[in-house]
User: Fold this.
Amino acid sequence: MKILMLGDPDAIHTVRWANALAKRGLDIFVFGLSSFTHSQFDPKVHVDFISSGKKIKSQNDGSFIKIVYLRAISRLKNIIKDFNPDILHAHYASSYGLMGALSQFHPFILSVWGSDVFCFPRKSFLHKSILKYNLSKPDVILSTSQYMADETTKYTDKDIIITPFGVDLKMFQARETGEKNEGIVIGIVKTLEETYGIEYLIKAFYKVKEEIPTINFKLLIVGGGSLELKLKKLVNELNLTAHVIFTGLVSHDEIPNYLNMIDIFVAPSINESFGVAIIEAGACEKPVVVSNAGGLKEIVEDNVTGIIVPQKSVESLSEAIKKLVLNKELRITMGKNGRQRVEKLYNWGTNINQMITIYKSLTKN
Assistant:
C-alpha cells in the first residue's frame, strides 16, 4: 500500500508515523514545506520538500505564503502522478490540509494537530473559511484527542475518529540511569514556549523548596525554545540557579534517559491538545502533575496516575508537588498506575495497527 503523507518532515510526530508505517511494509512518501535531517527517517521512506523560508510548525497560527503554496501544489500533483499513491494523508489542517484539499486526490485523510484548529480559524473570517473548506474535502478526519475533535466539530459536521499518538513501550520504561540522586528531582520535557506554562512551574518549585528546606531539590527543564533566556532570568531572580538545570534541545532518543532522572513530572500547560510528553512520563512510571488544560484531562486519571490542578495557579501546583514529595508510596503507586494506563490506551504498536486498519478500509474495492 502506498501512502503519500503531507506534513512537516522535521517534526518528530511526522517522522514517527512515517518510520513506523514503513517498518510495517507500507510504501511511504513524505512531502513537506521545510528542510529536514535525512538520518531521522527510515531508509525506505521517500522524502521531498519545498522550503517555505520558515517551518510551518513554528507558525502557531498556521499562516502561509501564497507563492510557496502555488509551487507546492504543482510539485504535489507531479508527485501524485509519479508515486501513484493509494491514499493521501495530510497532517495539520490549515496548511497541509489546504494542499491536500486543492490536490483533489481521493481517498484523502486529514489529521488535525492542535494550533491548526485552535488558533488558525480565530485569526479572521477568511482563516475560518479556509479551515472549513479544508475540512470539507477529506474522506476521513482524525484527531489524537476527544478534546481536539470537539473543537474541530465547530468547523465540520463530519465524524472524527480518535487516533491516539502513543509511545514505544520498550523505549519508554522505568530503568536505572546511573544517576544517583540525593533528594527529589522535579522535571518537565517540553518546548520552552508560552503555551506550556513553565514559568508557573519555576515559581511553584521555588515555593516548594522554601517550604520544605530539609530536602535537596533539583528542577530539570528538558527542551529548547524562544523563552529560554526569559526563563533563565526568572530562575536567576529567584536565586535558583544552583538548583535548576536547563538541558537545551535534546533528541527524541535521549528523552527516556532524562525522564528516568525525574521523580515527579510536571506539565502546567496553558493549552494543550494532547500531551505526548505526559504519556512518555507515565510509560516511565513517573507520577505527573498537570494543569486541567485541554487534552491533558483525558490522558491523566486524577488522583490515580497523577494530580490535575487549575491552570496558572502557582499555589495549586506547589501543593500538588508537595503532596507527592512527602509521600514516596504515592509517587510509586501513581507511577505504576500511569504505566498501566499507557499500556492500555497509548501503546504505539496498537496505534499503528489502528491507522493501518483505517487505510485498508479506504482502499477496499
Summary: DSSP finds 14 helices and 13 strands in the chain. Residues 3 and 87 are 5 Å apart (CA to CA).
